[in-house]
Amino acid sequence: MRGDTTGAIGPLSGAHGFRFAIVYSRFNDAITASLRDGARSALLEAGAGVDDIEVVSVPGAFEVPQAARSLAETGRFDAVVCLGCVIRGATPHFEYIASSVAQAIQDAAGGTGVPMAFGVLTTDTWEQAEERAVAGRENKGFEAGAAAVEMAQLFRRLHATRPAGFASS
């Protein structure tokens, strides 16, 4: 069952002149490759240049925040899109990974000052993951790419409008 679509993504624009990184997990690759393609599609639709998007793969969702932080720390990117897929199993592993990945991505964004879009699926079943990785604008990777564009624009505006004498900590 699909959720409320009132927050549907409108036309994308404004990514020209920004640089983006996409970090995706190879674990559950049939899903994450589709998320990666969706994110890339959103960035290109918004006007990012092909050469302004760097794609990095990592073994699993647990490694996504580590790579995202390293990419952000280079200073080369205006936003990082974080993608993965964790599907609930019979053990508590799901809870540990899902929680730690979400927290680590948030920590990396806060610690580096580079926005990071969260596109890590946490589903109960493979079928739920497939529903979220369909081709098109309902793809959660596409949504994460669109969020990265919006956040890159916001951060640029916020940093450009600091009052004179404002010191960052």
Helical run tally: 5
Any idea what the radius of gyration is?
16 Å
The number of strands is: 4
Number of domains: 1
Which strand order does the major sheet show?
2-1-3-4
- CATH topology (fold) name: Rossmann fold
User: SSE string, helix = H, strand = E?
Assistant: EHEHEHEHH
Shape: globular
Give an overview of the whole structure:
The chain is α/β, with parallel strands linked by helices. 44% of the residues lie in helices and 17% in strands. It has helices at 29-45, 64-73, 93-112, 126-132, 140-160; strands at 20-25, 53-58, 79-87, 116-123. Strand 1 (20-25), helix 1 and strand 2 form a beta-alpha-beta unit. Helix 1 packs across helix 5 (140-160) and helix 2 packs parallel to helix 3. Mean pLDDT is 91; it is low at 1-6.
